[in-house]
Design goal:
Elements: E1 6-9, E2 12-15, H1 26-30, E3 33-35, E4 38-43, E5 46-50, H2 52-65, H3 74-88, E6 93-101, E7 115-122, H4 132-135, E8 137-141, H5 162-174, E9 179-183, E10 189-192, E11 196-201, E12 204-207, H6 218-229, E13 233-236, H7 241-246, E14 249-254, E15 258-265, E16 268-269, H8 277-290, E17 301-304
Parallel strand pairs: 8-9, 8-15, 12-13
Antiparallel strand pairs: 1-2, 1-7, 3-6, 4-5, 4-6, 5-17, 6-7, 9-10, 11-12, 11-14, 14-15, 15-16
Bound molecules: ligand PPE.
Length: about 300
Amino acid sequence: MEQADLIWHNGELVAWEDAKIHVLTHGLHYGTGVFEGVRAYETARGTAIFRHQDHIDRLYKSAELYYMPIPFTPEEIRTATHELLIANGLRECYIRPIAYRGYGTMGLFPLEAPVDVSIAAWPWGAYLGEDSKSVGVRAKVSSWRKISGDSMIPAAKATGQYLNSILAKIEVHKAGYHEAVLLDERGYVSECSGENIFIVRDGRISTPPLSAGNLDGISRRSIIQIAADRGFELVERDFDRGELYLADEVFITGTAAELVPVCEIDDHTIGDGVRGLITTELQRTYEDALFGRDERYLRWLDFVQVPAPTA
Ligand code: PPE
C-alpha cells in the first residue's frame, strides 16, 4: 500500500511507522471494532471529503450497536480528519477511521476494555483495478451466504463481520473472478463483498432493500438520489440470482470501488458485456458529484483547505 506521513491516534498525530498497537488488543482477538471508508477528492474549489458527516454518523451508529462509546465527539473526529489531511498534504485520498476495543482485558465481555480511535489516510487508486470503471468486472455468486440479522448486525460496519466478505472474496478470487456477490439466507441477492449492487432491466433500476442484509451504503444512497434527480425509475426490492443474469446492466457501488459496471456474472454475459447506457449516465453524474462539478450535490462535500505542496 501507499503510505502517508502521519496517522491520528487517540487525539494525537503520530508518525505512520509508529502507529502500532499491543498484540493483546481486544479488537485483534475478537473483531470488536467499527470503521468507515471515506474518500476525499480534489475539486476546483479545493479538497472535499465526500459525504463526510454521513460517514461519521454511520461510524457512531455502528459503535452504538456494539455498545462501544467513542471517547470523542463526532465534531472532534471531523476536525481531526481535516487536520490529518492538511498535515499529510493529502489533496485526494482514502480515509479510514476506526474505533476498537483496545488493550486491557481479555475474554468475551468487552465493556471494560478501552475504546481506541485511529484515523489513517493515504492515496488509494481504483479498488477493483485500473480499468474497472470503464471495462467492468467479472463477478461470481459465492457459496457463502451473507451474515443474517439474526446472528449479527449487517447494518453495522464492524471489523469482525468482514470475515464473511473475506471468505466470499477468497473463494471467487481463487476461481478467477474479480468480485463476489453474496445471497442472503433466503437466497435473494444481498450485496458484494465490499459494494452494494444494482441491476437495470427494461430501463428500470432495482437494488436489494436493506432487509436483504446489506450495508446501508452511502454511495448506494447517493445513486438512489441521483437516479431520482435524473428521472430514472428505481425500486428497492428483492430479486434472486437468475435476475442478475437476465439484467441488461449490473453495477456495484462503494466508496473504495466507486461505481463499477459488472460485465459478467457466473459466466453469463450481462447485456452486451460492456458498460451499459444507464450505468454510464449514473456514473458520470456520480463522478460530477464527487468532484464538485454538479451544483446540486455540493451539499455532500466537506471542504478542507489542504495547502499546495511546497518546493
Ligand atoms: N457493502 C459492504 C459490505 C461494504 O464494505 C461497503 C463499503 C459497501 C457496501 C458500500 O458502502 P459505502 O462505501 O458507504 O458506499 N466498503 C468499504 C471497505 C472496502 C475495504 O476493502 O475496506 C469501502 O468501500 O470503503
